[in-house]
Specification:
single chain; 233 residues; alpha/beta; 5-stranded parallel sheet; globular
Protein backbone atom coordinates (compact mmCIF):
# COMPACT_ATOMS: atom_id res chain seq x y z
CA UNK A 1 0.00 0.00 0.00
CA UNK A 2 1.29 3.49 -0.85
CA UNK A 3 2.40 5.14 2.42
CA UNK A 4 1.46 8.64 1.34
CA UNK A 5 -2.08 7.59 0.39
CA UNK A 6 -2.34 5.65 3.62
CA UNK A 7 -1.28 8.70 5.65
CA UNK A 8 -3.77 10.90 3.79
CA UNK A 9 -6.51 8.35 4.42
CA UNK A 10 -5.70 8.37 8.12
CA UNK A 11 -5.49 12.17 8.14
CA UNK A 12 -2.21 12.21 10.09
CA UNK A 13 1.50 12.32 9.25
CA UNK A 14 3.79 9.48 10.38
CA UNK A 15 5.28 9.93 13.85
CA UNK A 16 8.98 10.82 14.03
CA UNK A 17 9.74 7.40 15.52
CA UNK A 18 8.26 5.75 12.41
CA UNK A 19 10.46 7.63 9.94
CA UNK A 20 13.17 5.69 8.13
CA UNK A 21 16.59 6.17 9.75
CA UNK A 22 19.30 7.90 7.73
CA UNK A 23 23.07 7.40 7.86
CA UNK A 24 23.30 10.68 9.80
CA UNK A 25 20.83 9.32 12.38
CA UNK A 26 22.92 6.16 12.80
CA UNK A 27 26.13 8.21 13.12
CA UNK A 28 24.53 10.37 15.83
CA UNK A 29 23.51 7.32 17.88
CA UNK A 30 26.90 5.66 17.33
CA UNK A 31 28.63 8.82 18.65
CA UNK A 32 26.51 8.66 21.82
CA UNK A 33 27.40 5.00 22.32
CA UNK A 34 31.10 5.71 21.75
CA UNK A 35 31.06 8.45 24.40
CA UNK A 36 29.14 6.20 26.80
CA UNK A 37 31.82 3.53 26.38
CA UNK A 38 34.58 6.07 27.04
CA UNK A 39 32.77 7.33 30.16
CA UNK A 40 32.36 3.79 31.51
CA UNK A 41 28.56 3.77 31.20
CA UNK A 42 28.71 0.77 28.87
CA UNK A 43 30.93 -2.29 28.87
CA UNK A 44 32.75 -3.28 25.69
CA UNK A 45 30.28 -6.13 25.18
CA UNK A 46 27.25 -3.85 25.64
CA UNK A 47 28.75 -1.30 23.26
CA UNK A 48 29.41 -3.93 20.57
CA UNK A 49 25.90 -5.35 20.93
CA UNK A 50 24.24 -1.94 20.65
CA UNK A 51 26.34 -0.86 17.68
CA UNK A 52 25.31 -4.04 15.87
CA UNK A 53 21.68 -3.16 16.59
CA UNK A 54 22.18 0.42 15.34
CA UNK A 55 23.49 -0.85 12.01
CA UNK A 56 20.44 -3.11 11.63
CA UNK A 57 17.84 -0.52 12.72
CA UNK A 58 15.35 0.60 10.09
CA UNK A 59 13.52 3.49 11.83
CA UNK A 60 14.34 6.42 14.13
CA UNK A 61 12.32 4.80 16.89
CA UNK A 62 14.40 1.62 16.71
CA UNK A 63 17.59 3.70 17.02
CA UNK A 64 16.34 5.59 20.09
CA UNK A 65 15.96 2.32 22.01
CA UNK A 66 19.75 1.89 22.13
CA UNK A 67 20.39 5.23 23.91
CA UNK A 68 17.20 5.57 25.93
CA UNK A 69 19.07 4.91 29.20
CA UNK A 70 21.97 7.28 28.40
CA UNK A 71 22.13 10.95 29.51
CA UNK A 72 23.16 12.13 26.03
CA UNK A 73 19.79 11.05 24.63
CA UNK A 74 17.98 13.45 26.97
CA UNK A 75 20.23 16.50 26.52
CA UNK A 76 17.72 18.17 24.19
CA UNK A 77 18.75 18.26 20.56
CA UNK A 78 17.79 21.15 18.34
CA UNK A 79 15.12 20.19 15.85
CA UNK A 80 16.20 20.37 12.22
CA UNK A 81 15.32 23.55 10.36
CA UNK A 82 12.32 23.43 8.03
CA UNK A 83 14.41 25.03 5.29
CA UNK A 84 17.87 23.40 5.02
CA UNK A 85 20.95 25.49 4.37
CA UNK A 86 21.89 25.97 0.70
CA UNK A 87 24.51 23.58 -0.65
CA UNK A 88 26.66 26.42 -1.99
CA UNK A 89 27.35 29.92 -0.60
CA UNK A 90 25.54 32.88 -2.09
CA UNK A 91 27.25 34.29 -5.17
CA UNK A 92 29.41 37.34 -4.55
CA UNK A 93 29.40 37.14 -0.73
CA UNK A 94 32.62 35.14 -0.34
CA UNK A 95 35.91 36.75 -1.49
CA UNK A 96 38.35 34.78 -3.63
CA UNK A 97 41.29 35.72 -1.40
CA UNK A 98 41.41 34.18 2.08
CA UNK A 99 40.94 36.23 5.24
CA UNK A 100 43.12 33.70 7.05
CA UNK A 101 45.52 30.94 5.95
CA UNK A 102 46.67 28.02 8.07
CA UNK A 103 49.65 26.14 6.61
CA UNK A 104 51.56 23.15 7.94
CA UNK A 105 54.51 21.72 5.98
CA UNK A 106 56.26 18.94 7.88
CA UNK A 107 54.76 20.55 10.98
CA UNK A 108 51.45 21.28 12.73
CA UNK A 109 49.28 24.41 12.88
CA UNK A 110 46.20 25.16 15.00
CA UNK A 111 43.46 27.80 15.08
CA UNK A 112 41.31 27.45 18.17
CA UNK A 113 39.86 29.32 21.13
CA UNK A 114 38.10 32.68 20.92
CA UNK A 115 39.00 33.99 17.47
CA UNK A 116 37.16 35.80 14.67
CA UNK A 117 36.31 33.57 11.72
CA UNK A 118 36.58 35.32 8.36
CA UNK A 119 34.50 34.65 5.28
CA UNK A 120 37.20 32.48 3.67
CA UNK A 121 39.85 30.37 5.41
CA UNK A 122 42.48 28.33 3.58
CA UNK A 123 44.08 25.29 5.21
CA UNK A 124 47.01 23.40 3.66
CA UNK A 125 48.63 20.35 5.23
CA UNK A 126 51.64 18.91 3.39
CA UNK A 127 53.22 16.12 5.38
CA UNK A 128 51.75 17.95 8.35
CA UNK A 129 48.65 18.52 10.46
CA UNK A 130 46.17 21.42 10.56
CA UNK A 131 43.40 21.85 13.13
CA UNK A 132 40.72 24.51 12.69
CA UNK A 133 38.45 24.64 15.72
CA UNK A 134 35.43 26.95 15.33
CA UNK A 135 33.68 25.71 18.48
CA UNK A 136 34.49 28.95 20.38
CA UNK A 137 34.98 31.26 17.39
CA UNK A 138 33.15 34.52 16.82
CA UNK A 139 31.14 34.34 13.59
CA UNK A 140 30.97 37.83 12.12
CA UNK A 141 29.55 36.47 8.86
CA UNK A 142 26.74 34.00 8.29
CA UNK A 143 28.60 32.12 5.54
CA UNK A 144 32.14 30.83 6.01
CA UNK A 145 34.11 28.87 3.40
CA UNK A 146 37.03 26.69 4.43
CA UNK A 147 39.24 25.45 1.61
CA UNK A 148 41.09 22.40 2.93
CA UNK A 149 43.86 20.65 1.00
CA UNK A 150 45.77 17.72 2.45
CA UNK A 151 48.75 16.09 0.74
CA UNK A 152 50.20 13.29 2.85
CA UNK A 153 48.75 15.22 5.79
CA UNK A 154 45.69 15.79 7.94
CA UNK A 155 43.17 18.66 8.14
CA UNK A 156 40.58 18.57 10.92
CA UNK A 157 37.70 21.05 11.18
CA UNK A 158 35.52 21.22 14.27
CA UNK A 159 32.35 23.35 14.45
CA UNK A 160 29.66 24.07 17.07
CA UNK A 161 26.64 21.76 17.08
CA UNK A 162 24.14 24.53 16.25
CA UNK A 163 25.61 25.67 12.92
CA UNK A 164 24.86 24.28 9.46
CA UNK A 165 27.65 22.60 7.50
CA UNK A 166 28.12 21.44 3.92
CA UNK A 167 31.07 19.89 2.09
CA UNK A 168 32.26 19.51 -1.48
CA UNK A 169 35.42 17.64 -2.37
CA UNK A 170 36.98 14.23 -2.60
CA UNK A 171 39.95 12.04 -1.90
CA UNK A 172 42.68 10.66 -4.14
CA UNK A 173 43.88 7.60 -2.25
CA UNK A 174 42.78 9.60 0.78
CA UNK A 175 39.75 10.42 2.92
CA UNK A 176 37.46 13.46 2.55
CA UNK A 177 34.64 13.40 5.10
CA UNK A 178 32.33 16.30 5.99
CA UNK A 179 29.40 15.73 8.36
CA UNK A 180 26.31 17.49 6.95
CA UNK A 181 24.52 19.61 9.56
CA UNK A 182 21.27 21.59 9.50
CA UNK A 183 20.77 24.04 12.34
CA UNK A 184 17.35 24.73 13.77
CA UNK A 185 18.22 28.45 14.04
CA UNK A 186 17.32 30.60 11.04
CA UNK A 187 20.28 32.94 11.75
CA UNK A 188 22.84 30.18 12.29
CA UNK A 189 26.16 30.41 10.41
CA UNK A 190 26.75 28.04 7.52
CA UNK A 191 30.22 26.52 7.18
CA UNK A 192 31.22 25.20 3.75
CA UNK A 193 34.24 22.88 3.66
CA UNK A 194 35.71 22.41 0.18
CA UNK A 195 38.89 20.67 -0.85
CA UNK A 196 40.84 17.53 -1.59
CA UNK A 197 42.71 14.86 0.29
CA UNK A 198 45.62 13.40 -1.70
CA UNK A 199 47.04 10.44 0.20
CA UNK A 200 45.83 12.29 3.27
CA UNK A 201 42.76 13.12 5.34
CA UNK A 202 40.24 15.98 5.49
CA UNK A 203 37.57 15.65 8.16
CA UNK A 204 34.91 18.11 9.38
CA UNK A 205 32.38 17.38 12.11
CA UNK A 206 30.60 19.02 15.07
CA UNK A 207 32.18 19.23 18.51
CA UNK A 208 29.66 17.78 20.94
CA UNK A 209 28.44 20.16 23.61
CA UNK A 210 29.74 23.32 21.88
CA UNK A 211 27.23 25.94 20.75
CA UNK A 212 27.45 29.36 19.13
CA UNK A 213 26.29 31.53 22.02
CA UNK A 214 25.82 34.68 19.97
CA UNK A 215 23.06 32.98 17.93
CA UNK A 216 20.99 33.10 21.10
CA UNK A 217 22.05 36.72 21.63
CA UNK A 218 20.87 37.67 18.14
CA UNK A 219 17.54 35.97 18.68
CA UNK A 220 17.08 37.86 21.97
CA UNK A 221 17.95 41.16 20.29
CA UNK A 222 15.28 40.49 17.64
CA UNK A 223 12.74 39.81 20.37
CA UNK A 224 13.72 42.99 22.19
CA UNK A 225 13.38 45.07 19.02
CA UNK A 226 9.98 43.54 18.31
CA UNK A 227 8.80 44.36 21.84
CA UNK A 228 10.04 47.95 21.58
CA UNK A 229 8.26 48.45 18.25
CA UNK A 230 5.09 47.07 19.75
CA UNK A 231 5.31 49.44 22.76
CA UNK A 232 6.01 52.46 20.55
CA UNK A 233 2.80 52.00 18.55
Amino acid sequence: MDLQKHAERQGTAPAVSELRASDADRDRIADMLREALAEGRLTAEEHAERVEGVLAAKTVGELDVFVRDLPAAHAGHTAPASAPAPNRPAAGLIPTDPDDSVVAVFSSAVRKGRWRAGRRIHAYAVFGSVEIDLSEAIFEYRQVVIKAVSVFGNVEVRVPENVSMRGTGGGVLGNFEVRTLDSGEADAPVVYVDGWAVLGNVEARPKRGKLVADILDRVQRKVDRSVRRHLER
